[in-house]
Amino acid sequence: MRVTGMMQNTQLLKNMRYLNTNLTDGQNKLASGQKIHRPGDSPVGIGYQMRYDTELSRNEEYVQNASMGTGMLRTMDSLMQQANDVLKRARTLAQQASTGTTPDDARKAIAAEMEQLKEQLVMIGNSTYNGRYLFNGQKTDQPPYTAATAASDTTDTGVYTLNVSPAVSVPVSITGEMIFGTAGSGDNVFKVMDDILDGLQTNNIDKIAAGMKGIDDSSDRISTQWAEIGARMNRFELMENRLADDKVNIKEQRAEVADVDMADAIIQLKQQENVLQAALSTGARIMQVSLIDFIR
């Protein structure tokens, strides 16, 4: 077959386009750090990359849930400490007032402070984290208690949970009644406080003394739930560590499929540049051949 000058020129231009395409692709890989820019670059690889990206997205969601759960439980842990301190002070005051030697004006002062302690307990019961009420079950948008009717207020029995993996959902909330006692019953801490206040106002020493046992029972109940909060915090922290390890593994798997080996990419790009320069040099000599060259 006779090779004409037109054929040489056409083939040269075709080769130049091919080399320029490879050079541009190498530059894009170095600039982005990614092997795959379109599905055609690696039909199999793009499938793995999309799967790993989805897993990373889910992992991030679970990490955020675990972080929020840890934050909520840490807040609850602090609130249990506050409630415990309030009850300690309430018991001290009740013990002072239960003696027959306490004068009326001192008993009135104790009653005023006891009222403030009760209001502090109500505030603790209505505490929030990021706008979510902590002690009203799944009704996180509604306060569980009011100052006037706290002793008879019922809380939602649902449990607010957070997903930390496709198959694991960890409970976060603890209902107010589990901490502060059943609404309307004698073990309700707000009812106990109301009874002590009534005893202080009516000088009923027996009622005040009975209230001290109610405070002790409430303290024991709070301590039990406090331990539960600590156990849940430990579980969320373990899940956060596990999710962090999973994230590292997924990123490594994704990198094997989609990330560029920079050292190798630089070598490949340099080789492409050398080939292009050689092709340009050869092409320049071919393109210079004309009829005048043959006449000579």
Automatic annotation (TrEMBL):
<dbReference type="InterPro" id="IPR001492">
    <property type="entry name" value="Flagellin"/>
</dbReference>
<keyword id="KW-0975">Bacterial flagellum</keyword>
<dbReference type="GO" id="GO:0005198">
    <property type="term" value="F:structural molecule activity"/>
</dbReference>
<protein>
    <submittedName>
        <fullName>Flagellar hook-associated protein 3 FlgL</fullName>
    </submittedName>
</protein>
<dbReference type="InterPro" id="IPR013384">
    <property type="entry name" value="Flagell_FlgL"/>
</dbReference>
<comment type="similarity">
    <text>Belongs to the bacterial flagellin family.</text>
</comment>
<dbReference type="InterPro" id="IPR046358">
    <property type="entry name" value="Flagellin_C"/>
</dbReference>
<dbReference type="InterPro" id="IPR001029">
    <property type="entry name" value="Flagellin_N"/>
</dbReference>
<dbReference type="GO" id="GO:0009424">
    <property type="term" value="C:bacterial-type flagellum hook"/>
</dbReference>
<dbReference type="Pfam" id="PF00669">
    <property type="entry name" value="Flagellin_N"/>
</dbReference>
<keyword id="KW-0969">Cilium</keyword>
<dbReference type="GO" id="GO:0071973">
    <property type="term" value="P:bacterial-type flagellum-dependent cell motility"/>
</dbReference>
<feature type="domain" description="Flagellin C-terminal">
    <location>
        <begin position="212"/>
        <end position="294"/>
    </location>
</feature>
<feature type="domain" description="Flagellin N-terminal">
    <location>
        <begin position="8"/>
        <end position="140"/>
    </location>
</feature>
<keyword id="KW-0282">Flagellum</keyword>
<keyword id="KW-0966">Cell projection</keyword>
<dbReference type="Pfam" id="PF00700">
    <property type="entry name" value="Flagellin_C"/>
</dbReference>
